[in-house]
Amino acid sequence: MNQHYDILIIGNSAAGLQALRTIRRHGGNVSVALVDRENCPAYSRVLTPYYVGGKTHRENLFIVGHDFYRRFAIATLLGHAAVGLDPDRHQVLLADGTTVEYGKLLLATGAEARGVEITAHGVSTLRHLEDADRLERLLKGARSVTAVGAGLVSIPFLSQAGSDVERHLVIGSDRVFSRVVDPEASAILEERFLATGLVIHKRDDIAELNGTDRLELTLARGERFATDLLLVGKGVVPNTALARETGLAVKEGIVIDDFCRTSHPDIFAAGDVADGRDFVTGEATIQGNWMTAVEQGEIAALNMLGLPCACDGSLKNNTTEVFGVDVAVVGYCGDGAHRTLSAHDRFTGRFRKVFLDERDRVMGATMVGETNDAGVFCQLVRTRAIFPGERVLRGANTYAARLLELAS
């Protein structure tokens, strides 16, 4: 006999969790089920490098426990992958052959690490808890570790690997964090990374891999060295297979409107799989950050409950700490800005760069060093505030005040 639920959620991370909380806050006794391929409560992927590096315990990764789902009366189908979707019949097929019927469906399936063409012991990605468990074992006793890719997986992993370990970073671009921060901030970060002993191989890639006990790497530019562990962190790909196979509109991710509704009226999408409108540019994009996933999860839940609520666009908002340096990026930080203002104090290491449009409204900001003012800049972008102004003066720290001087 088929199982039926008023609302079915596929995905057990930021968007799915927020949708559950919102449904129970506003939805009374509607029946809800959650499906996820991993057989564990929701956990933080951002913290996995800290666990791998021995800086926190495994149990600290979990955001909620099994009691969370029981308390919210959620039927959990954990450890079950969704392999088929029939929008007309409102049915989802699981890998074990179970069919689940739904009234409304939320696809919060996230993204998957880009495929690893290299298959060998000591080579891994870092996307799921099982990846973290494997890397944690591999890192023990390692004398040298290498990561490929210059983004928010490879660099945090190397940062937590330990200063007593030889660390190599292989990147195809000419700068670190090339998809995260602007070139000016990237140069500052690279200088800090090199000072910790990190070896950076720019405009390069893995050309050949040999060895059994240790990996013998040959780079495209000819350099050779041995390493105990190779992490491949070349970005992620949205998990859009279910949507594509059933004819939902998909570009890079699943296309959603401002209500987080897909091209089918009873199917919604949120988080790293959803292609929604960017607040600053108005263009469709996948932000890939926790805050956006939470916002979209809530909006999707409200609309599934019949409580109309529109999103005014998502915002790039990434904060991390690597090699002892705090980094934050808010809003649009690209070459299309009308003008930029920046300030860098080499004594403190703090750097601020603000991106402005033709009306001097704040489009975005990059912060290196103390990032407590990230919320201030986020609010400036959201309110389309002109920079400088009274609001900045009231909320700014020393560095934002310095930017005011540059702007005046």
Describe it.
It comes from Geobacter hydrogenophilus. The protein is α/β, with parallel strands linked by helices and 408 residues long. 44% of the residues are buried. 25% of the residues lie in helices and 29% in strands. The strands form six sheets. Strands 1, 2, 3, 4, 5, 6 and 18 form a seven-stranded mixed beta sheet that branches. The chain has a five-stranded parallel beta sheet with strand order 8-15-9-10-11, with helices on one face. The protein folds into three domains: 3-38 and 79-111 and 236-304, FAD/NAD(P)-binding domain (3-Layer(bba) Sandwich), CATH 3.50.50.60; 115-232, FAD/NAD(P)-binding domain (3-Layer(bba) Sandwich); 325-407, FAD/NAD-linked reductase, C-terminal dimerisation domain (Enolase-like, domain 1), CATH 3.30.390.
The number of distinct β-strands equals 25
Shape: globular
Unreliable spans are 389-397
CATH topology-level name of the largest domain:
FAD/NAD(P)-binding domain
Strand content: 25-35%
Query: Mind telling me which CATH architecture of the largest domain this is?
Result: 3-Layer(bba) Sandwich
Could you give a short account of the major beta sheet? Answer: 7 strands, mixed
CATH superfamily of the largest domain: FAD/NAD(P)-binding domain
Rg result:
22 Å
Q: Structurally, how many domains make up the residues? A: 3
Question: Helicity level, as a percent range?
Answer: 10-25%
Task: Compute the number of helices.
Answer: 11
Given this structure, which CATH class of the largest domain is correct? Alpha Beta
Distance between the termini: 70 Å
Helix-and-strand structural type? alpha/beta
Mean pLDDT: 91
